[in-house]
Amino acid sequence: MTMCRHNGDTMATVLRAYCTDVAFGIMLFGMRKVRLRVKEIATQKGMSMTRLHHRSEVAYTTIRAVFRDPHTEVTLTTLARLAEALDVSTAELIEDENGEEE
Hints:
Blueprint (H helix, E strand, L loop, with lengths): L10 H19 L4 E3 L1 H7 L4 H8 L3 H9 L7 H11 L7 E3 L6
Antiparallel strand pairs: 1-2
């Protein structure tokens, strides 16, 4: 299992905690539409969709969909893989409709 840079916890442990936080947020505030910043960050880092696909092991069709529509829904596993491949936190990949980072 891949180690995360979060206090040595495994990625699965961090994702479980993140999922719990997200579920709690949904219970309190209802479903909010978010924008994924994957294309923006990949472009800043000079990373093509193909290179991101190879580094993240996320399906190329999923990456293409996220690049074309930043409101595409993805799983937490996909989000974590993309964040790791881009060397950013998952929080940096998420932006709410008001332009504020999650």
